[in-house]
Write a structure and sequence with these properties.
162 residues
Length: 162
């Protein structure tokens, strides 16, 4: 059970960390290869770009989980009483955005599956690339629901609701 809690807290970090390590290693090896051996790694740019997509997708979910997603807080600075209502409104906007984008992304996902298009060098099916963004948006929406379920549960137990 402790492993599942740990995985719940760190799932996005693990995936983003693995992607960052992959980018670092492949780009370093490509630079070394081009500098010292006159030839680089053919798939370095494509693999790096794919890892960046994974980082962006999981970053959305991680931002929601840690409540560190981008928000404009100018109004909250001048009127502190608006902090909680604006935070809830912002969460609703992020949730709606995630649902809207994932629903629209399903069309792209279906067309990628039907066309069986692949990336140029690695020949990774584009379906998997688009799937990463879909998963990031769905995870973000689920993290948003999880956040409010935890808040409601804490409020019922008499704990802190913020």
């Amino acid at each position: 059970m402790n492993f599942l809690k740990w995985l719940d807290r760190n799932f996005e970090l693990i995936i983003m960390g693995a992607a960052i390590v992959t980018i670092t290693v492949i780009v370093f090896a490509d630079v070394v290869g081009r500098s010292f051996f006159g030839t680089g790694i053919t798939c370095a740019q494509e693999l790096s770009r794919t890892c960046e997509i994974i980082i962006a997708a999981m970053g959305i979910s991680y931002g929601v989980q840690t409540d560190k997603h981008i928000r404009v807080d100018l109004i909250q600075t001048f009127w502190p009483k608006t902090k909680k209502p604006l935070a809830v409104f912002g969460d609703i906007v992020v949730f709606a955005f995630c649902i809207f984008m994932s629903c629209n992304g399903l069309t792209k996902l279906k067309s990628a599956l039907i066309s069986q298009a692949t990336t140029a060098v690695l020949e990774i099916p584009m379906f998997y690339i688009y799937l990463m963004m879909e998963l990031g948006l769905v995870f973000a929406a689920l993290r948003m629901v999880e956040k409010y379920v935890k808040r409601l549960y804490a409020a019922k137990k008499g704990g802190e609701t913020a």
